[in-house]
Structures are given as C-alpha cells and as structure tokens.
C-alpha cells in the first residue's frame, strides 16, 4: 500500500511539472515578427518602405520607393540580382509557391 501511494505521488508530481512547463511557454505566433506573419504582397501593391523586401512576393521583387520628386507610395517592383541574393534568407519563402524551389535546385539566383 505504501509503494502504491509513493508511485501515485510521483506520477502526480510529473504530471504537474509538465502542466506548469506548458503554461510558461509563449505562443509561437506571438514570437514571430510581423513580417513573417504577414502575407506576401503581389507586384504593384503598396508596401512599407521602412521594412525589408521580404514583404513582396517572390525572390526577384523588392519594395521600391519613388524618388523625392516623384509622387506616390512605395510599391513592390521587379528587382535585380542583388534583390534575389538578399531575399534568400527571408522567413516567408514558403508563401512564394513552387517556382522558386525549382530554380533554387539549379542556382539560387
């Protein structure tokens, strides 16, 4: 009987410790940066010029802001090879579909 109470007490302690650990973990959605949670913007869409180019869809598109004498907001536009190289580390590459994956097997940019 004493062994049964001891085993039951250990089992309750283990269950309680796992329950406390799960409550202490922050949610993954709260940890993800805003750019990683946001959907990628298609070409021609207005974008935020203060953020990185990962907000625009695809590895070749960047957020292009107009010159001071031009009028209008920043928009997602086609970039150059440097854009592709910098976007290889974007956390939201999975949203871009399968096209970039096929190209990446041959050459990243």
UniProtKB/TrEMBL annotation:
Main location: secreted
Cited InterPro entries: Toxin_34
Cellular component, GO annotation: extracellular region
Transmembrane segments: none
Signal peptide: 1-17
Keywords for the protein's UniProt record, in alphabetical order: Secreted, Signal
A Pfam short name: Toxin_34
Stretches of the chain forming a coiled coil according to its record: none
MF term (GO), any: toxin activity
Location within or outside the cell: Secreted
Top-rank taxon: Eukaryota
Claim: Secreted is one of the keywords in the record: yes
Keyword hit for Protease: no
Protein name (record): Omega-Sparatoxin-Hju1a_1
Protein source organism: Heteropoda jugulans
